[in-house]
Amino acid sequence: MNEVYRPTYKVALIALVLGLLSLLLVNSAVWHKEQLWRYGERLVLELAPVDPRSLMQGDYMALDFTVARQLRQALRENGIWQSNLQGWLLVTLQSHGPASYQGYRLTNIESNMTGQQRLIPFKVRKGRVRIASNAWFFEEGQAKHFSAARFGEFRLSPEGELLLIGLLDAKLQPL
């Protein structure tokens, strides 16, 4: 009964398969985001003023968007503002400049939309409307450079997934 437990080839094989499966899942998610970055439709949203630093997390810019503030006001005026609310923000794309607020929908129904209108998913969390990302992280010491940001540049998938890819200055040039 002095037998020592030794992992068998079955345990090693299971560990190898689980490791490969984990790598496959991670790489699949990365590939999906890269495809959205490359082929997603360009969407620009105007930034609303916010605090540019966090001492606990390093340098970053907390993001808020003008359309999110307009949505928050509309939800409150219509008496449906609540935590954990989810829905779709309706915007109209502009050929030069940021998308403009057109309204909201609580379901993803694309009826009565013009060719330039898009639905963007939103969530209400902790008293704020969240659209895609609520922060842009940057290297320490770059706060002055990113303080010139006036717009967020996104890529939008046909399914409504939104990916923040950069910040733009007042002339819509990348920072």
From TrEMBL:
InterPro entries: GDYXXLXY (IPR025833). It comes from the Bacteria. It holds the Pfam family GDYXXLXY. This is GDYXXLXY domain-containing protein. It comes from Shewanella yunxiaonensis.
